[in-house]
Amino acid sequence: MSTRRNFLKLVAGSGAAFGLSQIPFLSGCGMHSEARQPLRLPAPFSGGTMTASVGPAGTGAAPLLTYGGAAPSPTIRVRSGEMFSVMLNNQLGEATNIHWHGLVTPADMDGHPKDAVAAGGTRTFSYQVKQRAGTYWYHPHAHMATGKQVYHGMAGFFLVEDAEEQALSLPRGEFDVPLLIQDRRVMDGQIMPYEPTMTDMADGFLGDTVQINGVLNPFFEVAAGLYRLRLLNGANARIFRLAFEDMRSFAVIATDGGLLEAPIQATAIYLGPGERAEILVDFSADAMNSSVMFMSLEFGMPAPSGGGHGGHGGGSSSIPRNGAAMEVLRFDVKRAAPAKGTVPTKLATLTKLDPAQAARTRTFELAMRTGVTSGMHTLNNKVFDMVRVDETVPFGATEIWEFKSLDDASIHPMHLHGAQFQVLSRSGGPLSPTDQGWKDTVLVFPMETVRVIVRFDGYRGLYLVHCHTLEHEDDGMMLNFQVM
Ligand code: C2O
Ligand code: CU
Ligand code: CU
Fold this sequence. Notes:
- This protein has 484 residues and is mainly beta.
- The chain is 7% helix and 39% strand.
- The protein is built from five helices and 33 strands.
- The protein has a seven-stranded mixed sheet, with no helix packed on it. It has a six-stranded mixed sheet with strand order 1-15-23-22-17-20, with no helix packed on it. A five-stranded mixed sheet has the order 25-24-27-31-29, with no helix packed on it.
- A hairpin with an 8-residue loop joins β24 and β25.
- The longest helix has 13 residues, at 2-14.
- The radius of gyration is 21 Å and the shape is globular.
- The chain starts with a helix and ends with a strand.
- Residues 1-33 and 303-315 have low confidence and may be disordered.
- The structure holds CU-O-CU linkage (C2O) and copper (II) ion (CU) (2 copies).
- One copper (II) ion binds at residues 99, 101, 415, 417.
């Protein structure tokens, strides 16, 4: 493991363009085989009823929990402006619901945990999709059970199209690929059940093996052309710093809330749990039958507060901590592309929110406390209460929300329901490519202050602000705000 990490540092540092895929990798935990499986794409959702159920038996010891009988959950595609409606039939044997992450829906359609559907129950979700084209997603948001239900398979893409995006000559069809990136604890080829320890609740439940679209250790056979990859970090707690092993540059074209104004060239991007990024990557210069690894690069994290190897960021020493290098997806270039794709120079028109219009600044302090067995992370010194209204926001108001981390140990991906925002600043440095555009989730690094601007002009009602590390969310790092 450490050899690989040092080698990666070397590659990242020198910008060398040779292939790491020549090197026989050891697996993250050394207890499972590295046999790679072909990538699968999620099935399309055909509409009507979505049944939440257990099984079919998954890869391993962990039960598979599904929407629509498959993991990952089926991909929903809608056109902006359309009405969307689905009936959830809960055959899971426990309460669940559906939250439409990134979509601004009426509050009673948003999948707030207070609106969970009891075992055996049904609920119809119906709303107009007002979002711009983009890569959104859906997942359960049941009280204290989000981490478990997502880990065991419930998460899917919600792709929105619109005229502005369709008018661009972006890669389409088989060249437009959704990638749900997660990590799992695997032993002897089997996914271990979700049984978080106290350390996992503190640090987040991290895995040792990357799973994409439900496939452990995948490879993907591609043509030597331009691809649009829709990256969704659906991991419970792992933050990825995504890059190609040869540090080739790619174009970031969209973030959480859709297209950017223009592509941003990057060689590595951070993607925290809940965040999305769309990138254009070109394989046209790759030799036939060559491979390139898409990976998560090592990044610095503060010294573990718990002490010991892998302390903060891993439930046990065999689990790579947050910030450790990991392989994500091997691309195998297998055939010629039908045409040479080009990256558009201009993408979309974005309305910038003006800080001068902000009625006020609201601060959320992110803190960690020790000596407690629950509520280890707090927002403004509070842990989640289902019915308590923590903040009241006037409908239509523009506000600056400031996430102020007093925690030196964890990165917190902060997420809002009911609105998309724009990132204004981060105290730790300049904005990154994945901070650009319309956002609903933003990484807050240890001891950092991140300011976002947001206008609450969607709907009135009760919405959530929380950390998208699912163990932190389930442990109460979440507040209610009422738009009224
Ligand atoms: Cu994707 Cu409240 O979450
Ligand atoms: Cu959400
Ligand atoms: Cu957190």
